[in-house]
Design a protein that fits this description.
Blueprint (H helix, E strand, L loop, with lengths): L2 E9 L3 H13 L6 E4 L41 H6 L3 E3 L4 E5 L4 E4 L4 E9 L3 E3 L14 E2 L4 H13 L4 E5 L3 H12 L3 E6 L11 H13 L3 E4 L3 E6 L5 E6 L4 E3 L2 E4 L3 E3 L10 E2 L2 E3 L11 E3 L4 E5 L4 E4 L3 H19 L12 E6 L2 E7 L4 E6 L10 E7 L2 E8 L3 H13 L6 H7 L1 H5 L2
Parallel strand pairs: 1-2, 1-6, 2-3, 6-19, 8-15, 9-10, 9-15, 10-11, 18-20
Antiparallel strand pairs: 4-5, 5-6, 7-16, 12-13, 13-14, 17-18, 20-21, 22-23, 23-26, 24-25, 25-26
The protein binds flavin-adenine dinucleotide (FAD).
The site of flavin-adenine dinucleotide has 38 residues, from helix 1, helix 6 and strand 22.
Function: Catalyzes the conversion of monodehydroascorbate to ascorbate, oxidizing NADH in the process.
Organism: Carnegiea gigantea
EC number: 1.6.5.4
């Protein structure tokens, strides 16, 4: 098979791949210079939609509605856009071998690709229960990462209308999926081992609100235990979930959200890694010549905190993609740009809730506002104070202006005199910064 050569290849047509393509077009690109190679069958899209609008029982989000870059208020890049710009979108193509020394890639179907510059944007893959030794091959056990997973889940939900769903995991996917299944009138039980949901970000106080809110919506929550197996019907469909504490839950459908890991296996031994992803500098350059890594697949210097971090959130995928293309383009002119100076930003939406978080969740957490799950306004937040300074801020049900205010406070890191006073002042403190 003839080998195809491109000046730039982006491996992975997800969020970072799409935003990088837009930045290349902005910076100037000749037709035929850039290719995006992606395992998925569709042009880059805003992945967060899969666990939210995509699962709505009515007026569900569908492509082409959420192709990048609509998630950040930008232009929607339809497949025709790539054609117009002379960008080759090579879809349904999984790369199974990468040889960085000869700058070549090979697909599962045997196609060969050569590049001058490679941007690795392979994202993450879900952790499976089978990775922990739990057999998960019964029908109607779902994972969610890509659009074809979401399509299977939608079919599963339709087939088990008003049935019983068990959601395994209490993180982002667990919380968003429990809400989506409940909105689809399923009887939902969440199971997770930790003492409260989203323990990597939420404090016990924050989690108390969400758990109470979910309970009021009819979601049952079982904490402190894990799934150790499944029972199935004669037709292979899941029937029950076996928990470590001995309980058995009836289930017509199971969704598992127990984490994800960066997809770096293709490059093992060829490029330096750190904290489970590919190590880069502040321009997303890796240890291999002419190879860059962005989004979930990168571990980069988080300048504000003076350490290397991995961030598996959409905002970083977008911004790292823009940074890498700018860095590549200026380096071709022998110039350079400022290194990446990222303020971590995460968000989630479920039911009629919507939160945003900026900064770092270390130090003392100070809750403020109305965090009663039964309250109609449920506007509350939390600051994190470390070494006398606010380093992180979280807000539920903030307006766009209020969200800007908490982003600023996390960036500016003002000094705090009294935690008690801060709690009383709440958002008022941040708006004065
Ligand atoms: C369901 C869901 C909901 C989410 N919701 C939120 C949210 O609300 N807020 C938030 O901040 N973040 C959210 N995230 C996380 C966010 O979507 C990711 O951080 C972001 O998509 C990372 O972008 P990426 O480009 O690095 O990887 P991805 O968007 O995952 O794209 C990687 C692409 O590379 C392709 N690929 C991988 N390996 C190969 C290969 N060998 N050959 C060819 N192609 C390959 C994949 O098929 C995929 O298309 C969510 C994630 C998921 C799965």
């Amino acid at each position: 098979m003839a080998e195809k050569h491109f000046k730039y290849v982006i491996l992975g047509g997800g969020v970072a791949g799409g935003y990088a393509a837009r930045e290349f077009a902005t910076q100037g690109l000749k037709p035929g210079e850039l290719a995006i190679i992606s395992k998925e069958a569709v042009a880059p899209y805003e992945r967060p939609a899969l666990s939210k609008g995509y699962l709505f029982p009515e007026s569900a989000a569908r492509l082409p509605g959420f192709h990048v870059c609509v998630g950040s208020g930008g232009e929607r890049l339809l497949p025709e856009w790539y054609k117009e710009k002379g960008i080759e979108l090579i879809l349904s193509t999984e790369i199974v071998k990468a040889d960085l020394s000869s700058k070549s890639l090979r697909s599962a179907a045997g196609e060969a690709f050569k590049y001058d510059i490679l941007i690795i944007a392979t994202g993450s893959t879900v952790l499976k229960l089978s990775d922990f030794g739990v057999k998960d091959d019964a029908k109607n056990i779902f994972y969610l990462r890509e659009i074809n997973d979401a399509d299977k889940l939608v079919e599963g939900i339709k087939a088990k209308k008003n049935g019983k769903a068990v959601v395994i995991g209490g993180g982002y996917i667990g919380l968003e999926l429990s809400a989506a299944l409940r909105i689809n009138s399923m009887d939902v039980t969440m199971v997770f081992p930790e003492p409260w949901c989203m323990p990597r970000l939420f404090t016990a106080d924050i989690a108390k609100f969400y758990e109470g809110y979910y309970a009021n919506k009819g979601v049952k929550i079982i904490k402190g235990t894990v799934a150790v197996g499944f029972g199935s019907h004669a037709n292979g469909e899941v029937k029950e979930v076996h928990l470590k504490d001995g309980r058995v839950l009836d289930a017509d459908l199971v969704v598992v959200g127990v984490g994800a890991k960066p997809l770096t296996t293709l490059f093992k031994g060829q490029v330096a890694e750190e904290k489970g992803a590919i190590k880069t500098d502040g321009f997303f350059k890796t240890s291999a010549p002419d190879v860059y890594a962005v989004g979930d697949a990168s571990t980069f210097p988080l300048k504000m905190y003076g350490e290397l971090r991995r961030v598996e959130h959409v905002d970083h995928a977008r911004k790292s993609a823009e940074q890498v293309v700018k860095a590549i383009k200026v380096s071709e002119e022998g110039k350079s740009i400022e290194e990446y100076d990222y303020l971590p930003y995460f968000y989630s939406r479920s039911f009629d809730l919507s939160w945003q978080f900026y900064g770092d969740n270390v130090g003392d957490a100070v809750i403020f506002g109305d965090s009663d799950p039964a309250s109609p306004q449920h506007k509350f937040g939390s600051y994190w104070v470390n070494n006398g300074k606010i380093v992180g801020a979280f807000l539920e049900s903030g307006t766009p202006e209020e969200n800007k205010v908490i982003a600023k406070v996390a960036k500016v890191q003002p000094l705090v005199e009294s935690l008690e006073k801060l709690s009383k002042e709440g958002l008022g403190f941040a708006s004065k910064v």
